Amino acid sequence: MVDRTAAPAPALSLEHLCKTYGRIVAVDDVSFAVGHGEIVGLLGPNGAGKTTTISMILGVLEPTSGRIAIEGVDLARDRAKALAGANFAAVYATLPGNLTVAQNLRFFGLIYAVTQLRQRVDSLIEQFDLTALRDTRAGLLSSGEQTRLALAKAVLNDPRLLLLDEPTASLDPSAADVVRGQIRRLANQRGCGILWTSHNMHEVETVCDRVLFLARGKVLLQGDPKLLPREHGADSLEELFIRLARATPGAAR
Amino acid sequence: MRLRPIAGIMLRQFYLLRSSPARILPLFAWAAIDIVLWGFITRYLNAITAAGLDFVPHLLGAVLFWDFFTRVMQGVTTAFFEDVWSRNFLNVFATPLSISEYMSGLVTTSMATSAVGLIVMLPLAIGVFGLPIFAAGAFLLPFLLVLFLFGTALGILATALVLRFGPASEWLVWPIPALLSPFAGVFYPLSTLPVWMQWIGRILPPSYVFEAMRALFAGRTIDSSTLWLALGLAIAHVLFAAWLFERVYRYAVRHGLLARYSAESVS
């Protein structure tokens, strides 16, 4: 029987997630949730397990153990249904350079089975300021333009969960500000839960409601990015990041 | 299985073909060259051998059918390689797209691209070199169906190979039809081969098609049960290939190969 009084499932829920490669532990018992309308920053030094965690949430890497649920749908049990409500943009997953902006959006729109695709593509092209580049091949776009295209693709299916891996890394400060605003609106107005990785601590402080600090595959700290530094005797999030990263054996110094 | 994602895979290939002559030409250029080359060889053979022997149906018919089979296999693998070449695995597989939808997209794409090759080959072979292909009558359909299914199976097997061993293993894929052709009895009866080669030939569905084609053009009757056997074998090959691809995909997901191949260049 369905419990109608129960709270709605979070956009994302990770329970005791582990990933090992032989004796190497990439992700070690990670549990957290991302609520609807919440932007959660996933921070950590290189090799901390951020990309491994994101790959598992995207269903392209199988966890060794643990559970992932997107809007309450177990990814391992019903992959298609779980991923239908999710999308992502990552610096290391550029869109096919031999397709134009509009062709890329139409292609992925069909893959995500987006309805009224023509109108959706037109609206996203306008929203992400890609009108003049509509028929330009993605491979010829500047890195900033490619980022805007990747973000347009990431919201094609009106996702309830959005995974963004350094979404503003190649944008100039003005463009990055615009994109941050768009993503913030997506969370506020559409109730989309967002998991955001970034090495720009100022950006994380500005955008994220909560941050998780990951090191050697474990969640070391989590909390409000505006309060965490003071709670741990640091002047800023960046100082706290550096201190934690340097205290982590094997992390880059 | 949903139709829109399958249409997406096809549409992507259509966009790529439309914008690139380098992709359009191979759909029919090599097939046309093969027909022209073998057409003249058969004419020459007809001229220098005893009257009454006609090499056109035997050799040119075999070339046409074998080329069609090769185009089907390459249609599947090329559509898959587009994702390898553009490092698009992560974008494609981190979606609700199921493996069966993805494979169906590759196969329907191949159906369209191999049909282009066939449409070019048929008028050339019939009009210029007088290939009596329609003498095959209703048998033409099972011939093409068996070859299509086996080409599909090999295409899926080849994609599984690349998914498992990485983009650099692409070079292993292209010679597969050439490696199989001696066993499939494309130009000669299986009885010409040593016994161990005949055994391999018997598990290859095209061998039954080529035996039937030769029988037909020689005026002998075709035992339709052998074509049913070929069809059954071809379906079994497709099922095995799909099963293997699924297994390899699971392995790739367990070991993180999909994410890694997105970053790996073709070397």
What characteristics describe this protein?
heterodimer; A: 253 residues; 6-stranded mixed beta sheet; 4-stranded antiparallel beta sheet; 24% strand; globular; B: mainly alpha; 77% helix
Structure, described:
- The complex is a heterodimer of chains A (253) and B (267).
- Chain A has 253 residues and is of the alpha/beta class.
- Chain A has helices at 50-57, 79-84, 101-111, 117-127, 143-154, 173-190, 201-207, 228-231, 237-247; strands at residues 12-21, 24-34, 39-43, 65-70, 73-74, 86-90, 161-165, 193-197, 210-215, 218-223.
- Chain A has a domain at 12-85 and 159-247: Rossmann fold.
- In chain A, a hairpin with a 2-residue loop joins strand 9 (210-215) and strand 10 (218-223).
- In chain A, helix 3 crosses helix 4 (117-127).
- The mean pLDDT of chain A is 89.
- Chain B is an all-alpha fold.
- Chain B has one domain (3-263).
- In chain B, 77% of the residues lie in helices and 0% in strands.
- Chain B is built from 11 helices and no strands.
- In chain B, helix 3 packs parallel to helix 6 (140-165) and helix 9 (205-217) runs antiparallel to helix 10.
- Chain B starts with a helix and ends with a helix.
- The mean pLDDT of chain B is 90.
- Chain A binds chain B through residues 21, 51-52, 55, 58-62, 79-81, 83-84, 88, 90, 92-100, 103, 106-113, 153, and chain B through 2, 4-5, 7-9, 11-12, 15-16, 19-20, 82, 86-98, 250, 253-256, 258-259, 262-263.
